[in-house]
């Protein structure tokens, strides 16, 4: 029993890391704006909170849906994770020149919401699977907040050459978990 519990937590940590890669990539770009440390703390907190709220909503909806569709829920969750992973990998190769939002007020909320959308979909899949809600949302929130802070601080030093590789890594991890649900 303890072994499967530890395996589940490790799986959630990897998923949280994969989802946090998007926030990390965006943070690298934001960090190049030479933000003050107080602003960096606030941006990380906002992204962490959104990475708690969005998967929580997804898990609740996923549990509701799984009650209605039964065993099909695990397959649907696997397909959903696989689809999100593939989308992240494809988006890594699409280079568009988006204007970076200012991480204040509405801009901060828009950034936090945007980078946490993937966690809503993953939460939906995990809700269908029957994952433990508290462990998932705490793990997703803390990891994304830490990756955001690291990205913002590194962004002050690095000039954005890591972005595409982070999204590919995150997408690959989600694809792996999706395939594991489908095959395993």
TrEMBL record:
Signal peptide: none annotated. It is found in: Cell membrane. The chain crosses the membrane at residues 12-30, 42-66, 72-94, 106-129, 135-155, 162-183. Keywords: Cell membrane, Ion transport, Manganese, Membrane, Transmembrane, Transmembrane helix, Transport. The keyword Oxidoreductase does not apply. It comes from the Bacteria. InterPro entries: Mntp/YtaF (IPR003810), Put_MntP (IPR022929). It holds the Pfam family Mntp. It is a multi-pass membrane protein. Probably functions as a manganese efflux pump. Belongs to the MntP (TC 9.B.29) family. HAMAP family: MntP_pump (MF_01521). This is Putative manganese efflux pump MntP. It comes from Oceanobacillus caeni. The lineage of its organism: Bacteria, Bacillati, Bacillota, Bacilli, Bacillales. The gene is mntP.
